[in-house]
Design goal:
Structural class of chain C: mainly alpha
Mean pLDDT of chain A: 84
CATH class of the largest domain in chain A: Alpha Beta
Strand content of chain C: under 5%
Low-confidence stretches of chain C: 1-25
Oligomer: heterotrimer
CATH class of the largest domain in chain C: Mainly Alpha
Distance between the termini of chain A: 67 Å
Number of strands of chain A: 11
CATH superfamily of the largest domain in chain A: Periplasmic binding protein-like II
Number of strands of chain C: 0
Order of helices and strands of chain C: HHHHHHHHHHHHHH
Number of domains of chain A: 2
CATH architecture of the largest domain in chain A: 3-Layer(aba) Sandwich
Helix content of chain A: 40-55%
Largest interface: B-C, 106 and 104 residues
Number of helices of chain A: 16
Order of helices and strands of chain A: HHEHEHEHEEHHEHHEHEEEHHHEHHH
Mean pLDDT of chain C: 84
Shape of chain A: globular
Low-confidence stretches of chain A: 1-19, 46-54
Radius of gyration of chain A: 28 Å
Distance between the termini of chain C: 13 Å
Largest sheet of chain C: none
CATH architecture of the largest domain in chain C: Orthogonal Bundle
Strand content of chain A: 5-15%
Chains: A alpha/beta (about 425), B mainly alpha (about 280), C mainly alpha (about 325)
Shape of chain C: flat
Largest sheet of chain A: 6 strands, mixed
Structural class of chain A: alpha/beta
Number of helices of chain C: 14
Radius of gyration of chain C: 27 Å
CATH topology of the largest domain in chain C: MetI-like fold
Number of domains of chain C: 2
CATH superfamily of the largest domain in chain C: MetI-like
Chain lengths: ~425, ~280, ~325
Amino acid sequence: MATGDSTAATSGGADYVPRKTSTRLIAIIAALLVVTNVITAVGVYYGTVPAKTAETITVIGPWTGSEYAKFLPVLDAFTNATGIRVSYSSARQEDLQLILPVQFAAHRAPGDVVFMVSSFIKTQGPSGTVLDLTNVVDKSAYAGGALDPVTGTNGKIYGAAYTGKVKPGFWYRQSFFTAHSLTPPTTWAQFQTLLSAIKSIPGIVNPIVSGDGVGWPLSDVVEHFIATFGGASMHRNLTAGTQKWNSTAVHDLFANRIVPLLAAGDFSQPLTWDSTAINGWWNNQYALYFMGSWITGMNPPVTDPNDVGVFSLPAQSGITPGIVFGPDFMFIPAYSTKIDAAKQLLRFLASKDGQTVQVKQGGHLATVLGVPASAYPAIDAKVAQTLVGKDVLPDLDDTKGTTFQNNFWSQLKGLWTSPNPAADLNSILDAIQSKA
Amino acid sequence: MKRRWPKIRLRTIVIHLIAWAVALVWIIPFLGVFSTATRPASEVTFGWWQVNPYHPTLDNFIRALTQPTYSVSKGYLNSLIIAVPGTLVPLFVAALAGYGFSRFSFPMRDYIFLAIVLIMSVPSQMIAIPIFQIMVNLQLVDNQLSLILLHTAWGLPWIILFMRNFFSALPLEVEEAARVDGASDLRIFFRIVLPMAIPAFASAGILQFMWVWNDFFFALILIFNPDKMPATLMVPHLASGQYTTDWGVLTAGSILVLLIPLALYVLLQKYYIRGMIGWTIKG
Amino acid sequence: MGETGAVQRRGLRTFTLFGRRRGGFRLGGHFGPRVRKATFRSVFFAPALLLLLFLVVYPILQTVYLSFMSATGAPTLGNYGAVLSDPETINPNLSWPPPLGTLIHNALWVTIHLPISLLFGLWMALILREVKGSSIVKSAIFLGMVTPMIVGGVILRFLFETGPGIVPSFFDAIGVRSLAVSWLNYRETALLGLIFGSVWLWTGFSLIVYSAGLTTIPQDYFEAAKIDGTPPFRMFFRITLPLLRPMTLVIITMTLLWELKIFDIVYAAAGPTGGTRGSVDVLSLQMFNYFVQGNYNLAAAVATLLTLLTLVATVFLFRRMVRP
């Protein structure tokens, strides 16, 4: 540095930058500033362009891929009937948990009809961020109690129910079972025998594959255990909060039914539910996969839906089992700019006509009354069989809310990945209860 | 002589092996990402190193760019809209201030300067909540302008420090001569000093651009509309894209987002490095 | 300094806005040249100060204010009490494996990541002086620094996930079944996986800084030492290391700052909830979750605590850097 400076020092005024160069430089800088201002102006302009015309509304749903492809015909039917165009935007409900509160705080809405977990809709209702739909939705069109999860304590209805999916039990490939002479179990002892039989088959990593993702696959299978061995009543009490997670009854259920399977390696490590897990299951690295009824539509890899079968955990005498039926709930944000069109779409989706279109494609069950049995494809008959003799239950963690749900999922994953699940069980149940 | 020669050779060989082994290990994750991005997702479910079947394809990139809700091309546009003004404006503003701190003396100058530099150690989380509230009040949420303003202000402390150190190293004689000739401070600054500061602008500019482009946290709290999201914000959403947890689209999108900082680094490495260490060596 | 010389000269002449030396029309007639100079000179600082005051200084003060307020608007220290006694911040049961609390996780991050990346960067910088094609090696290692950290987090998730990831498959291949799992799902390995992953991402920084630093050491020192018969070991400790002190200081400070603020990587790799049973929860993620829940006061308290930590860590270096 020192040596370079002295030359500049001695030449003094001669280093004065000549006028032309400096003008050019100033021109360049000015041009750059102009260009960036233009870019910014363009950006700001597009940021303040008025929303699309009343002819198009936005619906936000969690479905992607093949599930989304099945939702499209429903939207098309709506457009044909009303002329209102609908644009679909996908957002996972886990993401919406973060996005919606902040958007509402900024008085904005990302869509006009939004699908979201019932607990969110119920809690947001009284604060006015969610439209009161008491006069929009016809309660009597639904089976009894269908709208309870989105009805506030003040009696106002804040959401509507679309179709739903059942989480009937463990899915298996018929071809795999036939090839190894396996049959669905009807008692707990048979279930355990089945698991050990599967374990001895070459190529099997674990009998049951555990889904991973944000966490709902694990909570689904745990709910099934609770609804079967604790009964529908225990499931309801846990949902309502009248039963504690660290109570003896619940603790014993975990300790006697779930933990032994985990310790024996009957469950796999959590694997990405819609790629590694389902592919491994279809490739016979795992025999059983607890999933919802939408699995029949997941192609790839389920290329032949007739090859799949499902069985529920064997009911115990004296305990009325339950089965989780999870309707998709929708609401209209109060900050939507197209409330009337949104109401029309909501009514359509909550109607017999709308839900029939969806149900015809398989994997969904209608929540509204009056959809004929003939509308359902054959696969769903198997699913319907699993419902016989069981109480219908709402999804536990969806109903309880985000705080509970995030913690619940996290703790269950901890149970699944623990090197000693029996030892960790108490602290995990305590932790679950702390946010219940 | 004879005995020394083989010893040195062994050492050199070992050192070369170590260096190249480290480079290889370091690059393996990127190899994996590249491999996954250029093949159909089904091929890599069980590992990208499985080479049969191997069908190279640009399909993932196309899907990442044309994703209906979270398209990387929209992200690019938004990132540019935010990063270009978010670099040029603070450069200019900080050059003015840095020059002032360097050449002018006034009471409390060093204390004010120290205070500005101390801001550099404050984490972004510290201003998150009030900034969110300010932007809500200005109705600039979901608007790129909010990020431009924020990044401009946030980049000022370090660029001021950088510029001030740079100007302090410039010889005074040229400016002195101009003052003798009767030029005002502003004129000296624009006519003489700015042209001399171009290398500093290049270094600081690259670093600031990369910082703004790579930002995630500020964008996370200010932008929610997928149409306005910068590219970095789109990345987590690509995981649940058009199809299932699609590693192909996710990695392809990641590569696309990574491309601009990478290109800048490759093309302007000298300035980037100088920008990073320039003010550290000055001490 | 030259400044004083210019002031002396300036007293002799009259300046105008248009740079003419003689006579000329004076603006602000009443005020002496000194005041006019000051007003014009303030133009240099005005935009910067305005932006900083409104968008940085005010928010910082506002956050501190929020942290001392309760949700109802009453002044209170309760937020800090709540945060510090929350098991999420410091787990009372401080036994491995995680979660040990966000504060401990950040501390662990510092204790493990900082020495490793510092020493490894130094060692590579030393070695690469003698390697052909060192710039390629340096670029390969530096690639992580150029990556947006959110992409870095995605890469780490990809790296450690059973199925597509290479780490579980590697351990499966060599027979270590306990590590042949998705590291980020298991409490024992999640935090460590991310920490080692961050070493992979950030070692390039210390490498480049040390590399540049090494080039500034004049060779004469080493020549003189060699003539004196100093062994290379001693040369390193007596000459190289002390001369590299400014670089070391910078690396330590920047890395420390980065580790305390870490957010993007954790968010991308483990989601906004902080991993299995909170095993990778960090301070900034904790603050973000409070913010999303609308719990601004608690979020402000966490942010202020975080800032206190970073200030303490960096005040030493910045004093050195500010002296011209």
